[in-house]
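Ticket #4471: structure output looks truncated?

Reporter: J.K.
Steps to reproduce: submitted the chain below (443 residues) through the standard prediction queue, then opened the result file.
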Amino acid sequence: MDPTLVGIIGLAVALLLIALRTPIAFALGAVAITCIFIFFAFPASGGMHLQRAIKPTLTLSTGTMFELFHSYSLSAIPMFVALGHISYKAGITSDIYFAARAWLNRVPGGLAMASVIGCGGFAAISGSSLACAATMGRVAVPEMQKHGYSDALATGSVAAGGTLGSLIPPSILFILYGVFAEESISSLFIAGVIPGLLSMAGYWLVIAIWASVRPQDAASGSQTFRMSERMMALVNSWPALLIFLIIIGGIYGGIFTATEAAGVSFVVVTVISFVTKRITLKEYFEAIKETAYQTAAIFLIAGAAKIFVTFVSLTGVTNAMLVLVQSYDPSAAVLLIGIAVIYLIMGMFLDPLGILLLTLPFVLPLMEQNGYNLIWFGVIVVKLLEIGLITPPVGLNVFVINSVTEPKVPVGRIFAGVTPFFAMDLVVLGLLLAFPALSLWLT
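Returned output as attached by the reporter:
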């Protein structure tokens, strides 16, 4: 059987299973293992060798996963996940929001701006967009509603701000991209800093314009904070600032690798949480248990995706796609726009982790062939995945916000709220595409 045909059929079946809402780990893993078996059982030279196909199929599948799970870089994921869960249990992530609220409370739209800062601070610790949206949705949305903010602005700002967890380091997506693209995770983290801050500034601009055009949607807070209270709120957020400095300052200063920064920050947040009595032993073990569940899910998806990459390489689908693209001879701009459109469309239906691991075997060779910097491209991909989190009809952050608000804010209302932020994301994406130096300046 023609290997390329096997690859094309396998890819089509994988996409169909994912469209039918099959868990992506099982869709990718089952298709990849089956197609690898068919590749060896029905070689292009002819004949049928079912018995002889079992051993190479098992060897490739298990060997590929073993190699991935023993990756030094991948060990940063459980530590960063634990860092986020412990920081949440200890209230460290919420302190950033309360400090920003104290300073911006009297500014029109200030509470929404504080929510975006809180999301950015949470993102800088947890690396998870969905966790960021869920936490800030419970904390910030009721606060804004209490002060007369419209449901659209209150939920839209948090849903959009929650996407910063994908871009502001540490980012689980950056770690997985670095492992699969064989690029420096530390460089990816540093490259995400300016785009992350640019996205945050863009969200602030949206809120400022919204508050000016529709002041009834974003009244200034009625609560007045004395200067001493503002300073105390700022001081109370010192653990979050320290963790961010360890991660970014340590990596940028050449003191730590990304994995070492994960380990050090995990130890630091654990010590701080217990010494300051922010967390009990029971809450700590709950955080570790949640870390184990989330890490297992991530590793299962990554392992299945790694087998899928092996299947794609074995059947030559990537080479066939490269030949097809070359036959059209697209310009660099057309190629980038085409890839961006594909990611945006997939973002309407799939979760970011699934999109990343499904597409990398195909887009990375295209980028390498055309001489693009893969660090810069990693930032572009993560930004596109970030946009997908608020893109209808299946913007995951929107549904997370819907699930945590009481009373429930209708999904349609939340999507209306994120629309201006979605437009700003497209502006930021355009800047990152037009000016690669925005991503590469610090690396």
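Triage note (M.O.): checked the attachment and the full token line is present. The chain has a mean pLDDT of 87.
Status: closed, working as intended.
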